[in-house]
Give the backbone structure.
Amino acid sequence: MVLLAGVALTTLIANSAARLRAMAVAFLAVSIAANAIAAGATTIAQLAVLAAAGLAASGILFVAARDGDYGEDPEWRLWVATLIAAVATPAAFVSFRSADLSATSLAAFMPVPSEVLVEVAAFWLLSSGTAILVTARSAVRTSLGALLLLTGVQLLVRLAPGPQLELTIGIAWVEVVVALVGAFLIVNERAVRE
Amino acid sequence: MSELAAPVALLALAAPLVFALRKRVAIAAVGTLCALAGAAALLILAPETHGQVLSLDLVLTPLARLAAVALLGILAVIVVDVWLDEPAYNLFPTALGVGAVVVAVLLLQNALATEAALLVGLLLPVGSFTFQVHRNRSVEAAIRHFAFVSLGGTIGLAALALAAGLPHDQPQSTFVLLVVILYLAFALQLALIPFHTHAALLTAEAPATALALSFGVLTPTVVIAFAEILTDTGLLPSIVQLTKVQDLLLGIGALSALGGAILAVGAADLRRLVVSSVIADLGMAVVGVGSFSGPGLVGAIVIALATGASATQQLLAAGTLERRAAGGPPRAARAPLAAAAFVCGGVGLVGAPPIVAFPGHFFVELMAYAFASWLGGVLVLATLLLLLAQLRMAIALFADGLPSWRPEPRPIAGIAGMLLFAVLLAGGIAPDALLRPIAAFAEEFLHAVRPL
């Protein structure tokens, strides 16, 4: 539960960051918290790939900022994105949960199956990412939304049967490409504005 | 690693090399063409049809071979045009990256891996969309494309991961929701109506060659990937039992076909006409897939491939006509061969005989009538509107008459367009070579719909 709160909190920090460098650091924290929550369903090799992808993506955005002031102020979009995520997460969990909750108590301080935590974290990241991406005005928040979505996808992939390491590597590459394309657009957008 | 991965590896390794040499345009172009030809040769001569990379299965089906060679051929035509007519050095490495993704998508048998590769492919042209950023809105257009494609790709990946992880005894509403999300994901990636707004801005601001990369090569790949992913996920037997889901797919397709055709009729310039026509044709292809029938699927894939070739032909010709017009209205008198290529491309996008697109349109419209007469009517109306739109633009192109039939100097787009038209014509005269591999895939699709 603490890790789930960590994912939610770091996502909110990334969402509220008005500066790209702060956003990049917050995204790294989201990535670490999300991987920690699914650590039980993850091999060492997968963890290494995920850590490298998270570090590379946040590093690319950090460098693309060029200075500490550049970014996009979310203004009211922060609250809209948070509200959408808060409403969509339970709705998505109820519609798509794969874990059996019949014998599980969700009361506070009771142990919750790790699958449930991973699914809730994944739906939170997916709904937050979608809300940020849909309300974004520039490449800065568009990139953040896309990266949060991919972090959520990585969590869902861990619960799906199939070649886990290969899929983790594949989606990690997508994460790096999204960060590179986002950085390219951020640099170009800044050039146009200035 | 399997030998089947060699074409993907060749293209993916050539991309950074060409990127390093991109400012030496001739070397980069020749290198790109050699890599594309090498990959196509490896696919044609591949001794084995099954392989593995780590534990991901690769299968070279007859459709994968046909589509990969056709799409690499279209890429080669775009590269030649960029090299000789419209130097844009960023396009060469992008073309190689797109080529690697196209081949990977066609070979991979895992739905999640296919969708991940597709997302990378759809993001790659962003680098070619932006040019002269201080003079136009190409950055804004590229950001919108990035947002739409990222959203579509990631929700598609999430839906596929959920579909793989969910137990089979799910309530019907869960399946409906999952399939709806998957359809929306592909509608976003294909820029189907009502998710086409980014395509409109892109059409106005991006270079014609980059648009050809996107609408001529990647769009047909998305259609084929959609059918392959539906086959691989194992969702098809559940989907066909849900009439609501089929209605949704047919509805999205029909809306896009008619909406795209209406937009084409009102198109103010050459590029908008091409992209609106592509949207209309993609709508028809989605109706074909949504019919869950052999002829419908064959028609959908034929439409996708023929539309890719015709759209490339028209976009390259439109780029040349616009440049020669130097700010004025594009006229055939300044580039007669490019204008002729544009008009011939229109024949392909309408799906008129004897072009190979005709059997595709015929099959899909036949299945649409079999499903509901209103649906068949909508597709026929969309075809008529497309015909009207293309005729209107052709008349406008030749409005000033043609002082001479002599081709323009450096008629690269015209020759490239006529080459593509000749291939489509040959396919229409002898359709068996094209239809047989697609029919083999349709059989596999039908087997997935109704497993024994």
Observations:
- Chain A has a mean pLDDT of 88.
- The CA atoms of residues 106 and 112 of chain A lie 7 Å apart.
- Chain A touches chain B through 43 residues (CB under 8 Å).
- The helical segments of chain A are 2-16, 20-37, 44-65, 77-96, 114-135, 139-159, 164-193.
